[in-house]
Design brief:
Strand order of the largest sheet: 3-2-1-4-5-6-13
Strand content: 5-15%
InterPro entries: Epimerase_deHydtase, NAD(P)-bd_dom_sf
Order of helices and strands: HHHEHEHEHEHEHEEHEEEHEEEEHEHH
CATH topology of the domain at 61-272 and 314-352 and 391-406: Rossmann fold
Family: Belongs to the NAD(P)-dependent epimerase/dehydratase family.
Radius of gyration: 24 Å
EC number: 5.1.3.6
Distance between the termini: 65 Å
CATH class of the domain at 61-272 and 314-352 and 391-406: Alpha Beta
Protein name: UDP-glucuronate 4-epimerase
CATH superfamily of the domain at 61-272 and 314-352 and 391-406: NAD(P)-binding Rossmann-like Domain
Helix content: 40-55%
GO molecular function: UDP-glucuronate 4-epimerase activity
Oligomer: single chain
Amino acid sequence: MSHLDNIPSTPGKFKMEKSPYINRLRLHSSLAKLTFWSFVFLGLILIFFFRSPSSNPLPSDLSRRSLRTSSWGGPAWEKRVRSSARVRARNGISVLVTGAAGFVGTHVSAALKRRGDGVLGLDNFNDYYDPSLKRARQALLERSGIFIVEGDINDVALLKKLFEVVAFTHVMHLAAQAGVRYAMENPGSYVHSNIAGFVSLLEVCKSANPQPAIVWASSSSVYGLNTKVPFSEKDRTDQPASLYAATKKAGEEIAHTYNHIYGLSLTGLRFFTVYGPWGRPDMAYFFFTKDILKGKSITIFEAADHGTVARDFTYIDDIVKGCLASLDTAEKSTGSGGKKKGSAQLRVFNLGNTSPVPVSDLVSILERHLKVKAKKNIMKLPRNGDVPFTHANISSAQRELGYKPTTDLQTGLKKFVRWYLSYYSGGKKASG
């Protein structure tokens, strides 16, 4: 297609040196080639999404990315949706919580319900980690009167139906494909959930009347490679260290676009290593506990030159306070039916504990609470997107949200261990 390079960018200045017939042949040839390569690229994209490499069996992989929406609709289903989303407190809000059966989603949903807000959950119950833990969280929420609709955030028809049944004032968007390392095995699932899923939700929200205010979970991982310590929301975040971080950074840029064009009120929350009861089994504190109790060796990573790997561990109750404060201070969206009527609120906050702790100290605390000595295997931090150090600057959240974490790692891990031993005691899972 090098012959196209001779066509000037300014129309009307091209002197035809060949006959019109020859030029028409070249034009047709170029269009044919352009069409051919367009189909080739489209094919490659489809192959990437539907056959992305994964160490897991194909059925499991598809269950993570497909629209596994259970049957929905009908009078009985709509009645459950309305009942769950009904506001019971004066000046309460009605919130759609995506990823409601997840770790943070469960705690946020329960906290909203306790204070009288209307809460409806949405979750696809994928098998990235043990779905039975998600089902147990679901049962916990159902006892509080919270209904979790089983469906995918990319199912636009379902999302539209939910907004038809309930005029949500707020959305707490926590549905996402989590985990830094798994992104190297199954990149397509991150694009599907963290980018396409977010866009699907925003598309429905922009057309809702009234538009809801949206709070969504970003990640401390967006800070990537070139960031000052402690991490500030003003730092550059254009060099993410992992695909997971890149999808979360893309979400922040997409949010800016929808805020600018459609007047959606958007607040992003960058979480820093959240831990606590009902947590995620893929997190270090969780599988360390499991392996220490089983007498298995645990791997502790160290940075280059025997440097310390440290994390700004944040207890779940502190994260919940930040989430609720973000919802309470979110201004109304300014659009209606997809048309912007004025500038809208756009914010990003760090939610951390401001006290980075070496992972080796985390293990020592677990040993004390479990009363078991860990078998340790020290290894160099692999080049898989993990960063050696995280530390949150929370001054903006303190100033605008009144955010103030109060739980230290010693106290938080004691509560987690108590829950873990209760939930998994004797191989039987307790209900609370």
